[in-house]
Amino acid sequence: GIVPWLKTMDSSVSAVNQGGKRKGAACVYLETWHADIEEFLELRDNTGDEAKRTHNLNLANWVPDLFMSRVKTDGAWSLMDPHAVPELVDLYGPAFEAAYVKAEKEGRVVKTVKARDLYGRMMKTLAQTGNGWMTFKDASNMKSNQTAKPENVIHLSNLCTEILEITSNEETAVCNLGSVNLGRHITEGQFDFKKLAANVQTAVKFLDRVIDINFYPIPQASSSNNRWRPVGLGIMGLQDALFRLRLPFDSKEAIALSAKIQEEIYFNALTTSCELAQEYGAHASFADTRAAQGQLQFDLWGVKPTDMARWDALKAKIAKHGLRNSLLIAIAPTATIASIVGSYESIEPMVSNLFKRETLSGEFLQINRYLVQELKDIGLWNDETRAAIKASNGSIQGITSIPEEIRTIYRTAWELPMRALIDMAADRGAYIDQSASLNLFQESPTIGKLSSMYMYAWERGVKTTYYMRSRPATTINKVGGTTVAEAVKPVVAAPEQVLVAQADAAPSMGAKAVYTDAEAISCSLENPDAC
Fold first, then answer.
1. Of 158, 176, 368, 393, which residue is the catalytic one?
2. Catalytic residue among 31, 58, 145, 162
3. Which of 160, 274, 523, 531 is flagged as catalytic?
4. Is 376 part of any domain?
5. What is the total count of domains within the chain?
6. Containing domain of residue 284, as a range?
7. ω before 403 within 30° of 0 (cis)?
8. Known catalytic residue: 160?
């Protein structure tokens, strides 16, 4: 099995750090049909045989659509030995489904389980550890520019689930990343799209140049990067921009603005890459891409952009000159660089109005300066308000002296509906040719909540998700009459404790206080609004 090999990798990761500042890290992806999937989902457990635990490795599920469909229909799921079904690794979409069903009929099965039972175990792993990320194999491949030819397959994402590039024995995927700070693109109370366009064009040129001057430790990485020339331009400070525009994170206006920003970034990135191709030549594998067939990312999502005429003109230029880069957009977590520039991370909503970030370099107290300014403007930034915010662990929802409009704008990630975050991710996804590090938040995660949440993300076409964040990720520690923001490790429940107790359960489930995992999964999928 794979566990002993992963144990070796786990030890290697713990022995490595980056300049003494950042600990080593790695992520392991496993397909959902693999015979070792059940042991894989236990690797981060805090109980059980330590010889079968890998606490330094991150885990991700590489999930095919067929599995999610069988979860929905409460069907059976077959686990297989990869040596018996070697073809499955290099297939996706209808071809994968046909090969998988054929293998089932031929009896090449190690074990059969209920799809919902395995899905429930995935949800339990997420609830307990935040790990075991849900990434979707078919969406990742079918909506990739690099996979126009059947032999070009994406087998996994990266450590932060935003990179989606083909890999093989001959090619190791590499990507050069950069991020645009959206918080610095507000001019006179409006989002400055002209400034955004100029900065995107500059960033793409810089990222493309890095490909040529970079150091590659292995020839497979050099070969891949020079053949495909992928770059990943992302964003940070979305929350800063929304604060400056006074838009609630989950408002229709914010969701629409997010998609519009991403469309402009994608358009200008493609335009610049086409201009670079005109000057220096298209990347070597341009003919093997969907762009060469006239398909851009939004076409693969079935989405129509706001101004189709300019996109048609750009497609004509791409058909003539090609693209310098096979991939252009990837939204990374930006944890370190966001701290450096003083912005909120990536596409994240704020976690708290007051908290302390701890790194190996030291501790950083972060206070929501936008909220402070708003309260100063209305004369409410005083000792009483400060004490109330501290006592409320950085939340202002219970402070009725603060106007409701301000309270709505400054809700934390724990106070926002996750459906809005998923909708925002899906709407901007039509203009992201790789993917985005999408964290989801649940103050008290349950099997039922997570089940309906990840099913909805899959149904909306999201390619990948990242951490499942749960409380208490940040709380306010009161010491000797003063208050200090304090980072606290989440409390991990024992497996038997991660059950669902819902006050508003579906009538069909009766008036029980606690439900089994199977009942929670069933309710969440068949009646998600009630569960």
1. 158
2. 162
3. 160
4. no
5. 2
6. 157-321
7. no
8. yes
